[in-house]
Fold this sequence. Notes:
The protein contains six helices and eight strands, in the order βββαβαββαβαβαα. It is α/β, with parallel strands linked by helices. Bound molecules: zinc ion (ZN).
Amino acid sequence: MIVALVIGHEKDKPGACNEDFVICEYEFNKKLTCAVQEHLVETTDFCVMRVFRRTDYSNLPNEINELNPDLILSFHANAFNKEVSGTEVIYFHNSVKGKKCSEVIQNKILKALGLRDRGVIGRSRLQAGGHLLSNTRGVCLILEPFFIDNNCDYLTAQANLSKLALAISSGIEDCKNIIFNN
Ligand SMILES: [Zn+2]
């Protein structure tokens, strides 16, 4: 199985941030994807690639499709008003495998972090994330494990970073059966 771990945003436009701890999505997910890749390389024979945006967001699906992944995980973190908390995983609304894989990964993340369950969310082409979800081949999920602007969420994620990486890795292993068995 070929797995693409896509780091959301980029160095100069790092996504949502936590001002108190001076950390943004990009930096956090650079570390997280590194740990996920390490686990998978140790425990599976999957080909696991970390993907950084090379051009602009509109071209990201093309950059990912060139790698021919079976499973694509795009790593983000939510932000709202510093108070909202919780975990969600997003999939393309009419992908049956996407929905099943997002449920597996959502449950693993919930166990690792213990934050509020905001559920799995199916999105269509024109909704947030829909460009990536609808234009990539292979099962594509967007992970929002916590709210980075919420100090409590952020500290939970930071303190449990390796647990979170292990949970996501284990979820990816379970997704293999969903992706290859009909
Ligand atoms: Zn983001």
